[in-house]
Amino acid sequence: MRYKINPKYLHTSALIENIEHYFQQSRRVLYDQRNEIRVINFNSQEFVVKAFKVPNLINRIAYRYIRASKAKRSYEYSLKIGAKLTPEPVAYIEKNENFLLGKSYYISMHYDYDHTIKEVLANKALEDRVPILKAFSDFTYRLHEAEILHHDFSHGNILIKKLYDNGKTYYQFKIIDINRMDFHPLDLELRLANFARINADDMAMEVIINRYATLMGMASEQNKLTERAKFYRDDFYRKRAIKNKLRGKESL
Length: 252
Known about the structure:
By secondary structure, the chain is an alpha+beta fold.
């Protein structure tokens, strides 16, 4: 087993070294599909642990000798973009089997959020839906200006917390599932395409992109930018539907 701990969390070494025990003991399951995510309470602190599915043989070799594993990338990218943008990273762990990558884990601090962007988009009656959408656009603009391209920028991977300061309301955003990211300047098309996976309805997309266009200094082209963002959204979900249909046929 090999691992790396954020120096700030060296006191969690017993958790890291016995991660399988603590993971199996936890009954707080947040997600259980291809990968599994659980919350673990350790020394009066709450941690989120993501257990990655053991990859196929080719990737077991690649992640062991050629490329960084998803767990390692999650940890390194979290450190790179900082705790203002993602829950604070604690450690990553890789367990090797017969000189190949086996189970791997990424651990972060638990973030007590109020909504995901998915919930905001789904609840059209939410009182502060429009302010949240505008704040989300601000957040995305800051990501893009920082040359961060999150390839899994989807509605379930964007967390929102409502905060108050001197009687004013503001919204804090965090991104998760960040093992697929690029860091480089983004042109306008890449920026607009990055909104595709959130699956916003037309009204929500207009709010988001109108705000984004203003931040870009392109307020006069709001309609054009909104149509491009809708195109990328529709194209993404059309291709996903075709892929899912083909997978369904293959399983028959």
